[in-house]
Structure formats: structure tokens, C-alpha cells
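Exercise 7b. C-alpha cells:
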């Protein structure tokens, strides 16, 4: 466990000042666990009666304010019985009109409680329409009566910043904009991902209990793959301990972390599956498409509300001069594979593992690209039929092709550079050399699409790949250009061409072309 006070250190001060505030975080980041622990710590201090209350039971009632409120209050009584001593629990809930039942009940509880009442109202975003408006309005109306006749401090907690919800009648709380009655908050806290130090501390606790050691390199690799996303951090460890059953006497290595990563991605549990479902939403598409396609334009500020929404979902992260990027490499892989599923007619058309292996054990990159070029000539037109993420599909398809070809002996990673016209693939292939030693082959691909009416991207791609190769310390790389212009004349798939970059790297170029455009037949005279 990571201490709740370390994850949200501002909360005790806000409670002491009798503030109302917001806590928001993406799904499965440990928010509910943290709130429950914070409430227990505040109550144990002897100064407050603090409890976490879930509002989710009211979601099934839609705009039925009375039905939703009674369900919420029934659940609140149960949670208070579990989390508070008898003298701090609520009295019998008073009767009243539907539109005041929630606020009146909180007022009665605060008046009867011998300590200041502190509530963490979890899952606020599960409520919709009139019910959400009513709950927030009643909190706003009771605010002036705190602490004697209303809770001294309230935190409303959910996926989004509640101040941004459209809470007008008939509006949807899943999109921001519009006025909100909840204008009394003094601060909005976002529960962040784990730091590297917290990941190390979490795994060290497991080591202390079981004796199983995670090597320093393995812990750092977990952090690199997950960005500290709490569910992923725990999922990788659980995969190794519970399903791969790595013996406790055997140190956990980077290779085992990679195996766990692949197993988790292939299983696509509900956490990752819900991420994929989000890709269908228009606001998510508007933000992710420039990232996935390596657009030369950054995410448009016109869609700053969409950007905030996707950030709250945990799909992207910010914080450096490069602008937004996919939140972590595991999410990037899941998204790429999901997009590739749109354009692969059948898994049978993809290469199988070890289709492209040279006699010395190395991965045959030219052979893989030649096979891909032939497939593109047959099926490439289907990528231009108005599918979602149309501009990013060539990149996703190359990822799928290589990912299938190296399956079991290697990995393919996507790296994005928002607003820089780049979408890179990084391939790592593990093999046994002729002398029997284990070796690793690393290859880099710069992916481009040439569309009708656009300039040839090759020159810029060479400069970008040159910079990337310098960064990785590699001597050669590949540029793959998906030429989406209809060809007026038949064009055979020729061998890869080679150029030398400004820094002296060997650059192999594969230009994948569509089949020639069908010429109209002339009617007989």
C-alpha cells in the first residue's frame, strides 16, 4: 500500500479549514482506496467523523431524484456503520421532499454528530441529469450552514473535475461546459500516477512479505512501461506472481516483465478493454488522431475541452514541452493493436512467428517489408474508406505486421512525437547467435504516409530518423512510406533503396504503393 497521505497530502489542510473541494482521477488509479484510507486517518485522529460514501447506487434511477436519493442514503448508512463508531453514525434519516431529502439528511447527521462531519462523496459522475443537478445544488445550499448544521468539509470525487460537468437539466455529465451549481470548491485535486519511488516501495513491501526480489532493472522497466499507472503496476506484478508463477526464490527480471506485459495485453482485461471502447468517442478521436498519425500539427487548442476530457480519462499525459502524448507504452500498444484490428481482414493474412528469420538468427527486416509491400498493393485501398482514425491506420498496420512477425522472440513499441510529424516504431528481436550466445537486434522505423496533393515526406523523414538514430546510438534504420496516391501506371514493388543520412547513418527506404487506378473503358463508337 502507498500511504493515502502521501498521494493526497493537501487533504488534511483543506479539511482543517472546513473547505469543500474536488478529487478526480482516471478509473482504477486507487482513488476509492485512498479516500477510504484518508477517512479512516481523519477519524482516528479524534478530531473528525470522516467517511467515504459512494453515490453509485443512485445511477440506476436516472432523473428519479427521490428514488436515487433514497438508494444513496441506504448505502450511506451501511458505509457509516462499517467506517464509524456508533456515536458518530447518522440518526434516522428525516422525511422531506425529494429535492431536499439529500441535503436535509446531511444536515440532520451534522447536527447530531459530536464531531465535525467530513464526507468523501465518491462516484459523483455516476449520477446524471436532474439527479446530479439536485445533489450538487443541495450541497451548495447547505454550505453556508457548516459546520454545526451541515458537513464541515465535503470532497466530491469522480473521474472528471466536477466543476466542468454540464449539469443543466437534460445535460450529460460526461462532457464539460455549461454552468454548475457547485461553485464553492476552493481546490481541485487530481490523484496522480505512482512515482518511480512509489513503485519501488510497493514492490519492496511484497519482497519483505514473501522474499521475492524484483531486480532494480525490472522495477525501472515496470515504471517505464506503465508510467506509474496504478492498475498496470499491480497487473504486471500479479501476472508474474499469480499466473506465471515465477518462484519466490527466483529474482524477477526485465525479460519476465516483458513476458507479463505481453500476456496482460493479449488478455485485454476490463481495464484495457474499456480503454479501447473509449476510442470510438468523437472527442477522443479528435485528440488522439494527431498523436497516432504523427501529425505535423499538434493537438488543436480549439479542442482544449476535448483534450482536458481525454487527460481526465488517463489516455494521455502532459508535462513537457513536447505536448500531450499517450499516457504510457502499454496503452500505446493496446491502441495500436485495436486500430490494426480495423484493417486486418483476418489474422491469417499476417505473417506468423519466424516467417522472417535469417540463417544467422537475425530478424529479416527487408524480407518483412517486401512481404508487407505485396500485401499493401492488394489491400491498401481499404484504409481510405472513412474508417475512424483513417490517417493513423497505415502506421497501425505496420505495427500489426511486425508485431505478429516477431511474436514470441521480440517486441515492437510505438513512440509518438506530437506536432513533429513523427510516428516511430522500435523493434527489439532476441535470438541465439551462431556462437550460442544470446543476442539482441534493435531496429528503428520512421513511418510516413504520402497522400494525394501532399509533398513527398522522404526528405523530412531522413532528418527525423537521423536524429532518432543518434539518440539511440544505432547505425542504421528504415523509412516506410505508405503511398496512398492512386498510381496511374502499374508499379512493381522494387527492392529497398538506400541513402546516407547527414550524420552518416545508412537509411533503407521502403515505399509501399497502391495498385494502379482502373482506367475507364471507352464505349464502342
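Sequence design result:
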Amino acid at each position: 500500500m502507498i500511504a493515502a497521505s502521501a498521494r493526497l497530502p493537501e487533504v488534511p489542510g483543506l479539511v482543517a479549514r472546513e473547505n469543500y473541494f474536488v478529487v478526480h482521477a482516471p478509473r482504477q488509479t486507487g482513488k476509492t482506496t485512498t479516500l477510504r484510507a484518508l477517512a479512516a486517518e481523519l477519524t482516528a485522529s479524534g478530531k473528525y467523523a470522516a467517511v467515504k460514501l459512494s453515490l453509485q447506487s443512485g445511477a440506476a434511477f436516472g432523473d428519479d431524484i427521490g428514488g436515487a436519493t433514497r438508494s444513496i442514503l441506504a448505502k450511506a448508512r451501511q458505509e457509516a456503520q462499517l467506517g464509524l463508531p456508533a456515536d458518530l453514525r447518522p440518526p434516522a434519516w428525516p422525511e422531506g421532499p425529494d429535492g431536499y431529502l439529500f441535503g436535509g439528511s446531511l444536515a440532520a447527521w451534522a447536527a447530531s454528530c459530536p464531531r465535525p462531519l467530513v464526507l468523501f462523496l465518491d462516484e459523483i459522475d455516476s449520477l446524471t441529469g436532474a439527479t446530479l443537478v439536485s445533489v450538487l445544488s443541495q450541497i451548495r445550499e447547505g454550505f453556508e450552514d457548516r459546520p454545526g448544521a451541515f458537513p464541515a468539509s465535503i470532497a466530491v470525487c469522480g473521474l472528471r473535475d466536477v466543476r466542468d460537468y454540464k449539469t443543466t437539466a437534460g445535460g450529460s455529465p460526461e462532457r464539460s461546459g455549461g454552468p454548475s451549481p457547485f461553485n464553492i470548491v476552493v481546490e481541485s485535486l487530481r490523484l496522480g500516477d505512482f512515482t518511480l519511488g512509489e513503485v519501488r516501495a510497493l514492490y519492496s513491501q511484497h519482497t519483505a512479505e514473501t522474499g521475492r526480489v524484483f531486480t532494480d532493472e525490472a522495477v525501472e522497466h515496470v515504471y517505464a512501461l506503465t508510467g506509474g499507472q496504478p492498475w498496470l503496476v499491480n497487473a504486471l506484478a500479479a501476472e508474474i506472481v499469480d499466473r506465471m508463477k515465477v518462484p519466490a526464490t527466483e529474482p524477477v527480471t526485465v525479460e519476465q516483465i516483458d513476458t507479463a506485459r505481453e500476456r496482460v495485453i493479449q488478455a485485454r482485461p476490463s481495464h484495457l478493454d474499456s480503454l479501447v471502447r473509449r476510442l470510438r468517442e468523437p472527442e477522443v478521436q479528435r485528440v488522439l488522431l494527431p498523436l497516432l498519425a504523427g501529425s505535423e500539427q499538434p493537438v488543436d487548442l480549439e479542442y482544449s475541452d476535448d483534450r482536458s476530457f481525454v487527460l481526465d480519462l488517463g489516455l494521455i499525459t502532459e508535462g513537457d514541452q513536447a505536448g500531450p502524448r499517450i499516457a504510457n507504452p502499454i496503452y500505446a500498444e493496446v491502441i495500436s493493436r485495436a486500430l490494426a484490428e480495423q484493417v486486418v481482414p483476418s489474422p491469417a493474412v499476417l505473417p506468423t512467428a519466424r516467417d522472417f528469420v535469417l540463417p544467422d538468427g537475425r530478424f529479416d527486416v527487408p524480407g518483412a517489408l517486401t512481404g508487407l509491400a505485396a500485401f499493401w498493393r492488394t489491400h491498401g485501398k481499404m484504409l481510405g474508406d472513412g474508417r475512424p482514425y483513417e490517417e493513423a491506420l497505415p502506421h497501425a498496420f505496420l505495427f500489426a505486421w511486425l508485431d505478429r512477425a516477431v511474436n514470441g522472440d521480440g517486441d515492437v513499441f510505438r513512440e509518438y512525437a506530437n506536432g513533429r510529424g513523427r510516428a516511430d516504431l522500435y523493434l527489439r528481436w532476441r535470438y541465439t547467435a551462431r556462437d550460442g550466445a544470446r543476442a539482441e537486434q534493435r531496429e528503428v522505423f520512421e513511418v510516413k504516409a504520402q497522400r494525394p496533393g501532399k509533398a513527398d515526406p522522404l526528405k523530412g523523414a531522413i532528418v527525423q530518423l537521423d536524429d532518432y538514430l543518434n539518440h539511440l546510438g544505432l547505425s542504421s534504420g528504415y523509412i516506410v512510406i505508405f503511398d496512398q496516391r492512386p498510381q496511374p501506371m502499374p508499379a512493381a514493388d522494387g527492392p529497398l533503396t538506400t541513402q546516407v543520412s547527414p550524420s552518416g547513418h545508412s537509411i533503407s527506404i521502403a515505399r509501399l504503393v497502391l495498385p494502379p487506378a482502373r482506367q475507364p473503358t471507352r464505349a464502342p463508337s
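Instructor comment: Residues 65-83 form the longest helix (19 residues). The longest strand covers residues 438-450.
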